[in-house]
Design goal:
Layout lengths: L1 H31 L4 H27 L11 H17 L10 H10 L3 H19 L3 H18 L9 H20 L12 H26 L3 H7 L5 H9 L1 H21 L3 H10 L11 H10 L4 H11 L8 H22 L7 H14 L10 H13 L9
Length: 399
Amino acid sequence: MGKDKNKTIKRIVFFGLMFAVSGAIAWIASILYGKNTEMLLRNVVMILAGSGIVIFSYSMEEIEHRFIYRNEGKYMRFSLMYLFSLGAAVFLPLLPVTGWPFLVIFVLLGVFSDGVTGLVAGSACLLLSVNLAGGSFSVFWLYFISGAAGILVFSMLNDEFKVGLPMFISLSVLMLCLTANVILMSQSRLSVAQFTIPGINLIVCCILLLVSLKLFSTAVIHRNREKYMEINDPEFPLLVQLKDMSKEEYYHAIHTAYLSDRIARRLGLDDAAAKACAYYHRIGILKGENTWENVASICSEYHFPANTRRILKEYVDDSEKIVSKETIVVLFADTIVSSILYLLEKDSRAELDYEQIIDTVFQKKLETDELWENEISLAQIRAMRRIFIEEKLYYDFLR
């Protein structure tokens, strides 16, 4: 409850400041551009309304767990990105309309939140620029359509974050929109000079997207890649200590990690975090008992990534509710490995029906309230069961 309360307070503080500052930006910008009272009020009201919708959209997408790139709870990061974009929107009317790099603004707002929130936030920024410039709404629509295309194609990226094709598609849509709405609608005859500023716009957008997305990938998507490579090595010092203390616990962890990794990959989850949780879900015994206090102490000592700590806390701490999909994957992998090892311990030569064991585990888990109110769907549970059964050949290694 305390964690949820702190999260709510953070959301109110950052989004409250974002809402107030966005209105101030619209007010100051309208004065700087010499707008009359009616236009000033219009700009302030529209930006405040747009910011309110952005806040509502972000909050709803967080509740429904629909964020694209692990943006849950990143209120300050998104607020700063939105306010920076609004600030940039104030100065863009100083450029020719064919040179506005709004594709970059839409895409970045999208990757810092989700598709719907990014689209609303980008539209609010675009509306401010159009109102300040006194431009026609054909300008709004050309950047809205190209921005929407950019958000859509970049929202389909996975953790490999290969931006080549999305970059080509979004820049192509931007060029088509510029050509159709600005160049072809100009009163003068077509010439090479008319394509100069749009061409520069494309180059600038390409460079800014490459640089900013590289920074985003490094700071957010792949921030923990090297750390996961280190702690998910079976020869990592912690696992070596576990092996020296108990070979049974060590090999139990190895088998659980293998299955968790396989399942998480197939389901498109955070496989590195799930694998790490599977390796270290019993690591507290190195300090005596496998309590969350002991596990948390080890996590801090070895600087485990935040997502792994969260999953481990859900799994180890009895006061926590199991919510994340990765925790559920580890739960089933651990239970299935434990069940098979238990039966083999009773009779090492027994011919086990692995499919029946897996079905029994799933049935018993689903009959309890342990999996209520979590993020995983019934379709993913069915897919997980199928994948476990496909791994039947591996279970013979547990003998």
